[in-house]
Amino acid sequence: MERTWSSMTADLTSTKIRQRTKSLQIKRTRKNRRSEKNQKERTAGKPAAFSVGGKEYWMYLVLGEKPSVTQAYAKVLGAKKRQDGYLEGNGWLVSWCLGHLAEYVPPEEYDEKYRKWEFSDLPILPEEWRLSVAKDKKVQFTVLKKLLNRKDVEYVVNGCDAGREGELIFRRVYEVSGSCLPIKRIWISSMEDTAIREGFAHLKDGAEYQNLYGAAVCRAKADFTFLA
């Protein structure tokens, strides 16, 4: 049976409508993606809300290597309220490690004979490597331990220097504290406000720096073993 002109016109119109609808859907999807991207850029440096025990919190933790770095982070993040050993505000907790806060215990802690070791005693190879916190830094470590084990913190940002030593400083504190928080990493080479904002807008997964941490541990153990 031959199709009538009206039926052919209806089919053509229906096809155009479907094409138009699909085109609008694609445009709407692209627009939504641009909107989400713009929203992320506008809110860079601000944590997303999450719930603990039915109560909403806005809390992330950042650890810098030293107070001066922490103050630069806090300024950009809006953490203006000074607490005992850290700064707080705008959903952020920002604290510092005071350099190498946790280090391997000295040789004599493993064996008294190493209190006055000789070159013939080298290499010194402990069966179990032990970390300890320096006496003059225990107060700050107590602060960090509490922060790293708070229930209202979603994850911790490693804000120590971008390098092998910075990675080691943070990981040792994290390990000794017994924290189980997920780790994020800010990796920047400038402490300008714009660089800090960019860094917090593009935080890395801490697992990406596991090999760097491994290299730092190897170097620290080598230094201890032969230069104790």
User: Biggest sheet, strands in spatial order?
Assistant: 4-5-6-3-9-10-11
Strand content: 15-25%
Order of helices and strands: HEEEHEEEEEHEHEHEH
Count all strands and give the number: 11
What composes the largest sheet?
A: 7 strands, mixed
> Structural class of the secondary elements?
alpha/beta
Runs in which pLDDT lies below 50 for 5 or more consecutive residues are 41-46, 48-53
- Overall geometric form: elongated
- Report, as a whole number of angstroms, the end-to-end distance: 98 Å
How many DSSP helices? 6
Radius of gyration: 27 Å
Level of helix content? Answer: 40-55%
Please state the average pLDDT score.
81
Describe the model.
The structure is a single chain. The protein is 44% helix and 17% strand. It is α/β, with parallel strands linked by helices and 228 residues long. The strands form three sheets. A seven-stranded mixed β-sheet has the order 4-5-6-3-9-10-11, with helices on both faces. A two-stranded antiparallel ribbon has the order 1-2. It has a two-stranded antiparallel sheet with strand order 7-8. Helix 3 crosses helix 4 and helix 4 packs across helix 6.
